[in-house]
Design goal:
InterPro entries: MPAB/Lcp_cat_dom. Pfam families: MPAB_Lcp_cat. By secondary structure, the protein is mostly helical. The protein has one domain. The chain has four helices and two strands. Strands 1-2 form a two-stranded antiparallel ribbon. Helix 2 packs across helix 3. The radius of gyration is 13 Å and the shape is globular. 4% of the residues are buried.
């Protein structure tokens, strides 16, 4: 979560600044679903997040491009 590309993705492409509690709630719900719910529900939640992430790209302050679905960032 602390990789600059991940932080930039959240900061630049989410409503974190306007809705910090909502963002935290949605993240906690995702973690709970993928940890405790059925496999079908977990896979559906993962698919929803991946669908959003495939569209998110940006540039770090140093000019380095990033893509939120970059496997290195996801690892």
């Amino acid at each position: 979560m602390l990789h600059p590309g991940m932080l930039a993705g959240v900061w630049d492409h989410s409503r974190l600044r306007e809705d910090m509690h909502g963002r935290l709630r949605r993240t906690a719900r995702f973690i709970a679903t993928t940890t405790y719910d059925s496999r079908e529900e977990a896979e559906a939640a993962i698919a929803r997040v991946r669908a959003v992430h495939t569209r998110i790209r940006g540039t770090l302050p140093d000019g380095t491009p990033y893509a939120v679905d970059d496997p290195a960032l996801l690892a």
